[in-house]
Amino acid sequence: MAIRSYKGITPAFNESVYVDESSVLVGDITIGDDSSVWPLVAARGDVNHIRIGQRTNIQDGSVLHLSRATKNNPDGYPLIIGDDVTVGHKVMLHGCVLGNRILVGMGAIIMDNVIVEDEVIIGGGALVPPNKRLESGFLYVGSPAKQARPLTEQELSFLKVSADNYVQLKDEYLAEDAS
């Protein structure tokens, strides 16, 4: 795997985390326990930082980046991803904050200064433009993304199931790598 330091800061995670060897992680990135980063993910913590919570999975081909501090925005926009989050294939996350128990559908794009509250589903291909807040308990779809409807009890329970499934899968991959 390509784990690279930038300005003396190296991505940090423990042995419970699976990072596919084809992924590239650069700079100020911290990944929580039991999380996974799948093939061809590119994550650059160069001009700000990336924090990924526990039991979160970042699926194939996703791009994770952030925005630097400027005169008008002294903190910039780091990328913060909570616990039990499923980030689908080819998702782009840029300088946003994702809460806990979220599913981001394949190909979605979430831009700077977006805040996604806990327990949200973002449909595949959705575009969430800068400075939006997605309220807890809803499905968001479209380009630009709009609140479609409340999540069902089944969908709410699936958010944790999805994360648990990826914890199991990354454990299988780690066991395979150890043998």
From TrEMBL:
Gene3D superfamilies: Hexapeptide repeat proteins (2.160.10.10). SUPFAM superfamilies: Trimeric LpxA-like enzymes. It comes from the Bacteria. InterPro entries: LbH_gamma_CA-like (IPR047324), Transf_Hexapept/Carb_Anhydrase (IPR050484), Trimer_LpxA-like_sf (IPR011004). This is Carbonic anhydrase/acetyltransferase. The lineage of its organism: Bacteria, Pseudomonadati, Pseudomonadota, Gammaproteobacteria, Alteromonadales.
